[in-house]
Design goal:
Layout (H helix, E strand, L loop, with lengths): L1 E3 L2 E4 L2 E2 H8 L3 E5 H14 L6 E5 L6 H9 L3 E4 L2 H9 L7 E3 L6 H10 L2 E4 L2 H11 L5 E6 L21 E2 L3 H10 L4 E5 L9 H15 L7 E3 L17 H19 L4 E4 L3 H4 L3 E12 L4 E5 L8 H5 L5 E3 L7 E7 L7 E9 L6 E5 L19 E6 L2 E6 L4 H5 L8
Parallel strand pairs: 4-20, 5-6, 5-13, 6-7, 7-8, 8-9, 9-10, 9-11, 11-12, 12-13, 15-17
Antiparallel strand pairs: 1-2, 2-3, 4-14, 14-15, 14-19, 16-19, 17-18, 20-21
């Protein structure tokens, strides 16, 4: 985002004009940012042709999926419906990995029938999978390395109390299950959490997977998940992708030599690819001053962007309607009948009722975590790409809200 001719723009298009054309609230994504992030990741691991599987739980609009597929990206899915969305967007089954958690064996079987890579994260399902398929369908195994990493406990997934993955301390039992059921294990996987700053965390996890690999002779790939940290505000420290790429690529090549064949190295970035591409535009409904605070009440709430309330996440807020105005202190809140505060005591260019505010870094886990709480409609989505701003999801209406209700006589 930059100011051009007195207006905040993304890829040359004025964001306030998008709000005027498509209405507010509205999610806006800059496709060029997504493509640049993808290319940066690929280039950081230049010694290896890494396979990137986009974690579509972050943002699963079909237009975004098609854009990433066009770059050569694969897909990471966590539900059978995400698999179906990926296939609908044109992904080949071989380019999709299915990594669910606590689902039934029936959902696993649905994914097998669709031909995607299966990633299993608990021993019970592994045993059932082996009983049904033996070595006729290969699978990946998700290991919990017991590494505490991530910016918030709710997004740390590799620690000892996490529900995700099979404990590295249970590997001997896993090997017994694999051998007794004659399961073909073609991949090992880990994902320790989000917002990881230290390349050493990935390297520590790598050593755990490399050590485990000696018990699985049929591996085709090793998958390190993701968790790369992006910047939310000025001065934020982020994951040094170049440093990580150089260090992990070198170690991976050494591992492949000792393993006896070249494997593929996979990553599953979600937030890293789409977070910084996103802008959430809202309109100011009211200014409300109390004895201690000036509240800016906007036409949105935790029903559209729950991350600040759920994760205490920071989203920088700017006033698109008054980019050169004097800065004042405001607390920005929503219109939901809960305490839905987007930001306390923020310096924002002077705000007036009717202004359009912009929340930055809103590309990941915004619309996909939205709801109809308080019977509010989900917002529209717009993609900026190739010099155009295109509507990629219509705003909901009352018909959408009641579509699945059944009218009964009482």
């Amino acid at each position: 985002m930059e100011i051009v001719n007195g207006q905040y723009t993304a890829s040359g298009i004025a964001l306030e004009e998008i709000a005027n054309e498509f209405g507010a609230p509205v999610y806006v994504y800059d496709g060029n940012t997504i493509v640049n992030q993808y290319n940066t990741l690929k280039q950081a691991f230049a010694p290896i042709d890494i396979k990137v599987k986009y974690a579509c739980k972050a943002l699963n609009n079909s237009a975004i999926l098609k854009l990433l597929k066009k770059q050569g990206c694969g897909l990471d899915t966590v539900s059978i419906n995400e698999v179906l969305l990926g296939l609908r967007a044109g992904f080949e089954p071989k380019d999709i990995i299915f990594t669910p958690n606590c689902v039934s064996i029936e959902e696993i079987q649905e994914a097998v029938n669709l031909g995607v890579h299966i990633n299993i994260d608990n021993i019970s399902i592994l045993e059932q999978f082996g009983t049904i398929y033996g070595n006729s369908v290969p699978c990946c195994i998700r290991i919990n390395p017991h590494i505490l990493a991530g910016g918030n406990t709710k997004i740390s997934t590799g620690h000892i109390d996490s529900k995700f993955g099979i404990s590295v301390y249970q590997l001997r039992h896993v090997v017994r299950v694999v051998k007794s059921a004659n399961i073909k294990v073609n991949g090992l996987h880990m994902h320790t959490g989000s917002d990881i700053l230290d390349a050493g965390v990935f390297l520590e996890g790598a050593e755990i997977l490399f050590d485990a690999a000696k018990d699985f002779p049929d591996l085709e790939f090793v998958d390190f998940g993701s968790g790369f940290k992006v910047a939310y505000k000025e001065g934020d420290i982020t994951t040094d992708i170049q440093e990580l790429g150089a260090a992990l690529s070198a170690r991976f090549l050494e591992f492949c030599e000792s393993y006896g064949k070249n494997l593929e190295l996979w990553f599953e970035p979600g937030k890293y690819l789409v977070s910084e591409s996103g802008y959430f535009l809202v309109k100011v409904n009211v200014l409300k001053q109390t004895t201690a605070t000036v509240f800016v009440g906007v036409d949105s709430g935790l029903n559209h962007l729950i991350r600040p309330m759920l994760y205490d996440s920071y989203h920088h807020i700017v006033n698109l309607s008054n980019p050169e105005g004097k800065q004042r202190i405001y607390t920005v809140v929503g219109y939901i009948c809960e305490t839905d505060t987007f930001g306390w005591d923020r310096k924002i260019n002077e705000v007036h009722e009717g202004d359009i505010l912009c929340f930055k870094n809103a590309g990941a886990y915004g619309i996909t975590m939205s709801s109809n709480y308080n019977a509010r409609f989900r917002p529209a989505e717009v993609l900026i790409y190739n010099g155009n701003a295109q509507l990629i999801r219509k705003r909901e209406n009352m018909d959408d809200l009641i579509r699945n209700e059944v009218d009964v006589q009482l």
